[in-house]
Amino acid sequence: MNYAGAHFETAVAPFTPSAIARAAQYIIEDLPVALPTETVYGLAARADSGDAVAGIYAAKGRPSFNPLIIHIASVAQAETIGRFDDTARTFAQHFWPGPLTLVLPLAPDAPMASLATAGLRTVALRIPAHPAMQALLEATGLPLAAPSANASGTISPTRAEHVLQSLGGRIPLIIDGGGTEHGLESTIVAVKPGALVLLRPGPITSEQLSEFSGLSVTAPHPDDGITAPGQLASHYAPSKPLRLNAKNAFDGEWLIGFGSIGGNVTLSATGNLVEAAARLFDLLHEADASPRHAIAVAPIPDEGLGIAINDRLKRAAAPR
């Protein structure tokens, strides 16, 4: 199907076997559908079809130089797409299913549309843990490209209503599986000889990766450019100005608190970073819909999961 310019009466259906069957039919027809993963809601389409992947870009308004994460059902399926060395295979076996994306060399003859990797010679792979995405992968038997289910650059969706607000009319179906568990996109790591390159922080921390593998975790080189999703300087952004490290609200600001700093709402009154990560995008959506003209967020400790939270907040606050 030629997706360009298509308009849909977007249906929202609860996560049931019949909804998965309906979604699988759309996938076969090269149309994207939205559904939950354990991180955020994803916009899934078959990764082996250029037309289907173009449908993701069209729905999101996403820059085509920004690659997509490919979701697969098994390590065996992943090995038909990416080239695994022993280190990468060990990571996959330990952390999958789960919120870790591995960036690997693209395998020869990989069943992939080049648009899904933005023409790069690498591919981003993960096995999701959420039963809805697992069911869709099983129903289709296909690798699925699935970035976050929102207009490009805007706040990531952690509930079906966030997807409907952002992509209503642009896609045919949203599967409602309730709020997501982690609330932050997956950790993305490139496995290099003797080292790991952290391309995007997420629910699995650098400390966890290093402790498991014994390898050092390094930052990407500034000259490497965009090599994985979520690396654009401005991303995850609300429509209103966002001020970080706020200890109180200025006039006209909606304050998102943390720990001892209260606010209109709080990420975690007890300073729990896991709770804060799960609530981050929810509360940014709430703040964006408030009557205030600007948003402020209390300081978040830059350690552990706080590194991933601060990464999202800095990109959300970056000049557009």
Strands, total number? 15
Total of domains: 2
Uncertain regions spanning at least 5 consecutive residues: none
Structural class: alpha/beta
How many helices?
A: 9
Largest sheet: number of strands, sense, barrel closure? 9 strands, mixed
The radius of gyration computed from the alpha-carbon positions, rounded to a whole number of angstroms, is 19 Å
CATH homologous superfamily identity of the largest domain: DHBP synthase
Task: Write out the strand line-up for the largest beta sheet, numbering strands in chain order.
Answer: 2-3-7-4-6-5-9-10-11
**For the terminal residues, how far apart are their CA atoms?**
33 Å
Corresponding CATH architecture of the largest domain: Alpha-Beta Complex
- The average pLDDT score comes to 91
- CATH top level class name of the largest domain: Alpha Beta
List keywords for this structure.
320 residues; alpha/beta; DHBP synthase; 2 domains; four-stranded parallel sheet; 15 strands; 19% strand
Give a written overview of the molecule:
This protein has about 325 residues and is of the alpha/beta class. The protein has two domains: about 10-225, Alpha-Beta Complex (DHBP synthase); about 240-315, no CATH class. About 30% of the residues lie in helices and about 20% in strands. It has helices at about 15-30, 50-60, 75-80, 85-95, 130-140, 160-165, 205-215, 275-290, 305-315, and strands spanning about 10-15, 35, 40-45, 70, 100-105, 120-125, 145, 175, 185-190, 195-200, 215-220, 240-245, 255, 265, 295. Strands 2-3-7-4-6-5-9-10-11 form a nine-stranded mixed beta sheet, sandwiched between helices. β10 (about 195-200), α7 and β11 (about 215-220) form a beta-alpha-beta unit. The longest helix is centred in the C-terminal third of the chain and has 16 residues, at about 275-290.
